[in-house]
Amino acid sequence: MAFPQSAKYLVIGAGIHGLSTSLHLAKKLKASGQGSGEDIVILDKTGIAAGASGIACGVVRNNYFQPAMRELMAHSVQHWEANADAFQYNPVGYLQISSESMHDDVAQIHREQQAIGYESDFIEGTADCDAYMKNIFSDWRAQNITSVLHEKKGGYAHNAAAIYALAKMAEEEGVRILSGVTVTGLKFANGASSAVTGVETDKGTVACEYLIVGAGPWVRDFWTMAELPETVTIKGQDGSQHDNIPMWKYWQLEEGVLRVDPESFKTNDGKLPPVVHVDTDAPLISDVDGSVITEEMWGIYYKPDFNFGGIQGGAMPYKVDKPASEVAIDPYGPSSPEFVSSQEFAHMWVSALAHCNERFSGTMPKYHKEPSGGVGCFTPDSFPVFDVFRENCYIIADSNHGYKMIGVGELVAQEILGETSSLLQPFRFSRYAEGKLHPVSNSPYPWS
Ligand SMILES: Cc1cc2nc3c(=O)[nH]c(=O)nc-3n(C[C@H](O)[C@H](O)[C@H](O)COP(=O)(O)OP(=O)(O)OC[C@H]3O[C@@H](n4cnc5c(N)ncnc54)[C@H](O)[C@@H]3O)c2cc1C
Questions:
Q1: Do 159 and 148 belong together in one domain?
Q2: In a domain? residue 430
Q3: Residue among 403, 427, 445, 447 to mutate when testing ligand 1 (max atoms within 8 A of CB)
Q4: Rounded average pLDDT over 349-373
Q5: Residue 67 and residue 425: Cα distance in Å, rounded?
């Protein structure tokens, strides 16, 4: 097929957002008689699932302190459930297990989950939490735990398989996905309009009526191409102005795999367990040499994963200590010479696994030594920006929350066709200037 000279709807990125938006836009165009998937072209410089979506841990949770995030996640969980087989989605649930400093925040999350009908149990107090966890895993032994939030929905999906399934569904609607095409610049209208009229690529120019950017960690580059501001002014909760805040920052996600049989991490009654997420201030002692790794708050998450071939999970990310413009995103993920999980991560994570479940004690030699992890691009408040710029350019900047957000594409498609989504409203760019910020929790993560 010839390289297209134009597309009514041009989408950048064959990751979760570009594909989900294209699929739902195609369906909505057809249903409304306004067009079809044949009006949509996706360009990706590498291919389907080549970005963050293809290396994500795949965890789907609702556990957010911010009400707007929770409502959005509840919507996306419906999408995961609706196509669980195709997405290889495991609806095993999710456990947020915390020490006292997070108790009040998590209690509030539980209350608000009840209010929106998102099923979860909340267990409080050291003894009750210990008993609850031992009822799931007989070898449970994590310390300083005073609350357990057990979300009955959520779980995890096979990362790349779900993205390939979305691509297949989009192609069945007539969407064209072009791999190996790098977008190098945007073209704008002259005169009164500032709209995008097309993109320049290494294969030629493609004109468009509407541009959708789902470029994951590369959103920084499209922001620059669209000539949007490198810094923002944020109105704080107290009304004070904070000027010159960089629009983007990068964090390194540290994840890894312990190569033990995934079958060895099941519940006492032989079922696949919920995703386990522990945040605690208990001293973390090395399972290798007995040294103190940290006496500060630490956090890990893990699950048995047949796709990764072991126990897969991660720990707190760290901030990349460079201006966003200087961060080398390519080569991305495990191919990066700079941003892969460290030996210190492996030591910390496996020791933390052993702190929680005795069965993992002595397993350090089984840590899979292949490179893993990748960088994520975060907004000033670390929450997504879903908004239209230059009249016809929808930017989906999920601030690295996004694998679980498989339903956002449906809402973006709805907005492109003129119907505002109340679920996306709290994520407009204008919130920084207006001071309409999301509440901040006591979690050690930049995304909870
Ligand atoms: C290690 C890791 C683990 C994670 N785990 C989870 C998790 O468990 N749960 C969760 O919800 N989220 C997780 N995330 C976050 C999640 O993966 C991302 O938020 C999400 O995948 C972003 O999707 P996307 O479609 O925006 O971008 P991507 O999946 O990154 O896709 C962007 C695409 O754009 C293409 N592209 C970039 N630049 C250009 C260009 N110039 N021209 C053409 N194409 C271009 C790329 O090739 C890429 O395929 C994790 C992230 C990382 C790094």
A1: no
A2: yes
A3: 403
A4: 94
A5: 13
